[in-house]
Predict the 3D structure of the following.
Amino acid sequence: MRIDVVTIFPDYLAPLDLSLVGKARDSGLLDLRVHDLRDWTTDRHRTVDDTPYGGGAGMVMKPDVWGAALDDITGSEVERPAHLVVPSPAGHLFDQRMAARLADDPWLVFACGRYEGIDARVMADARRRVRVSEVSIGDYVLGGGEAAALVIIEAVTRLLPGVVGNPDSLVEESHGTDGLLEYPVYTKPPSWRGLDVPEVLLSGHHARVARWRRDQALRLTAERRPDLVARLDPDALDGRDREV
Ligand SMILES: NCc1ccc(-c2ccccc2)nc1
């Protein structure tokens, strides 16, 4: 997979050199390139923003600079289609299902806006040539799209074949295929500051451990995310589960 990120703060994406994404890059599973939007400016001040038509506070990112950058980047490979991903408060809400869909794309190009956003004609023009998705990672205000791009790139990269050592760990994970929140986890010592690991986890009885974990996941999901319970496939719940 190839991922390009366009931003006026390239250093914000430095964490993508580390850990899981860094290893995917080093191993060649991920070709990730970060670009400074200002490299496509033509004035001596390297201007990327201007005042909004219609008035109002703040500044809007200029279409001509973004257009030149996206033309260069998305036009650089003709044999594979680019998917432009624009982090935005107005976007479709990102979730694990969207992560799985994006992980199937051969090429993602992230356009990270700042200020009050990117001139809307940039996305309208890009839709003439490539797939465009505006994506939100939640209902809160950020200063720009970079933090959202980091979140989306990490969630997508870990789904790429060969990135995570044990693919089994991808199945049970919270918000994974079972749609429940993650059960509580424990490791040694068995007692710590007067707090003991639940006995069942020390029993070696795998069926009981599995049942305890599912019960915990259902309890936590019902308590914290009733919206996820509503989405559960009723057939996936065995008889006892319906008591939740
Ligand atoms: N869903 C989180 C999110 C994503 C992007 C932005 C944003 C803010 C300013 C300019 C451009 C994008 N804000 C929040």
Remarks:
- The mean pLDDT is 93.
